[in-house]
């Protein structure tokens, strides 16, 4: 997976770089078809913002998180992306099994 990490009004230190890469490895463990990820870290007065766009086979997943601490924002971001990846994977496996998504309860 290719990871593009950039910062707006924040310097990307080696520690931040390593932290983002370690966290994104968790995403790769859950879903193999992740092609690339773009992560943008920004600072606006007292809030730290992390946002990510993850490109997977046939889809693009976006999430963002804001916190007072950059590491906490990154943790929240990865949790959101992880949830979306799992949901995307479930949709794909349902389609491959030939099952149709039903919005009404079965009797």
Automatic annotation (TrEMBL):
Pfam families: Ribosomal_S30AE. Keywords: Translation regulation. The keyword Lipid biosynthesis does not apply. InterPro entries: HPF/YfiA_ribosome-assoc (IPR050574), RHF-like (IPR036567), RHF/RaiA (IPR003489). The keyword DNA repair does not apply. Associates exclusively with 100S ribosomes, which are dimers of 70S ribosomes. PANTHER family: 30S RIBOSOMAL PROTEIN. Belongs to the HPF/YfiA ribosome-associated protein family. Short HPF subfamily. This is Ribosome hibernation promoting factor. The gene is raiA.
